[in-house]
Design a protein that fits this description.
Blueprint lengths: L1 E9 L3 H13 L4 E8 L4 H10 L4 E4 L5 H12 L4 E5 L3 E3 L4 H11 L5 E5 L2 H4 L5 E3 L6 E5 H4 L15 H11 L4 E11 L9 H18 L5 H17 L6 H13 L10 H12 L2 E2 L14
Helix pairs in contact: 8-9, 8-10
Length: 295
């Protein structure tokens, strides 16, 4: 075993969750701790865990926290500094995945987060890079760095907000996200043939939420352009259902979460935009004032 906590937020996809947990436990070495979050008190998840993985600790919420809210709870409960995150339908694609995580953490001990590769272009990158947005389906948090952020905004549907928001928060704090092209995860999810009207509407509202909560007011036009690009993309992809509903949803969606406002500086946002366009090759990281010592 290795001093890593693996976390998996889960809601309704029982078979996918069981497959993910089985693969995690087949890795060599295995993480010392595995935590699962049953969102909304899913009885199907709880029954499956009791039957198939009774030794794994399960956290439960009575109401839906969404994947971000679940991750906040899981990271807070983790016993280890390194917290390997997976979706319920994503899992390590290498038997020595966690050994690779430890080597990466020792190579870049000052990093705030590590991001695994799930797509071909990510695996083809020539060596480690500092990136602006981590992978959503496979990343490793440093618990001490995550504690310095406001955490994920609890959203039942978090697409367009979740990993983008936490990555921006870390960047503004001076944290570096290291992308490792030789650290592989598999996202066992086929590309969508279509997007439901509800999902479409929520993603559009989420894309407006990020600028509202994090961008300086002078940079809101950049956020407006991002929302417009999303609208153009879904319409041109043949998924127009829910677009107008999403636009109408924006005011109430933003006002309901105004307590989460914590805007970053203009300089931090601009440097984050630049990093999104041009990831920075890494050989080493400068020694920073790290929140805690590395494991």
């Amino acid at each position: 075993m290795c001093p890593i906590t693996a976390i998996v937020p889960a809601c309704a996809r029982v078979e996918a969750l069981l497959k993910t947990l089985a693969i995690i436990q087949q890795c060599e070495p295995t993480p010392e701790e595995i935590l699962v979050h049953a969102d909304g008190g899913s009885s199907a998840i709880l029954a499956a865990m009791s039957e198939h993985f009774p030794a794994i600790r399960v956290l439960v919420s009575d109401h839906l926290l969404g994947p971000g809210g679940a991750r906040n709870r899981l990271i807070a409960a983790a016993q280890h500094e390194l917290v390997a995150n997976f979706d319920d339908d994503s899992f390590p694609d290498q038997p020595d995945y966690f050994a690779r995580v430890l080597r990466l953490a020792r190579e870049f001990p000052e990093a705030a987060m590590y991001s695994a590769a799930s797509q071909d272009f990510e695996k083809a990158m020539p060596g480690p890079h500092a990136i602006a947005v981590s992978s959503g389906c496979g990343c490793i948090f440093r618990k001490s760095w995550h504690a310095k952020t406001r955490g994920f905004v609890p959203l039942p549907i978090a697409y367009g907000m979740e990993e983008t928001d936490i990555s921006l928060q870390l960047h503004a704090l001076g944290g570096v996200i290291v992308h490792a092209p030789d650290l592989h995860v598999k996202h066992d999810k086929p590309p969508p043939v279509e997007v439901s009207a509800h999902s479409n509407a929520t993603v559009i509202a989420n894309m407006a939420l990020l600028p509202y909560l994090r961008y300086p007011v002078l940079m809101w036009p950049a956020g407006f352009w991002q929302v417009l690009r999303r609208v153009i993309y879904v319409i041109s992809s043949g998924w127009p259902h829910g677009v107008w509903t999403g636009i109408q949803l924006i005011p109430s969606h933003l006002l309901a979460r105004r307590s989460e406002i914590a805007r970053v500086s203009y300089r931090s946002l601009v440097s984050w935009f630049v990093l999104r366009l041009r990831p920075r090759p890494l050989s080493t990281l400068p020694v920073l004032s790290s929140p805690t010592a590395c494991p």
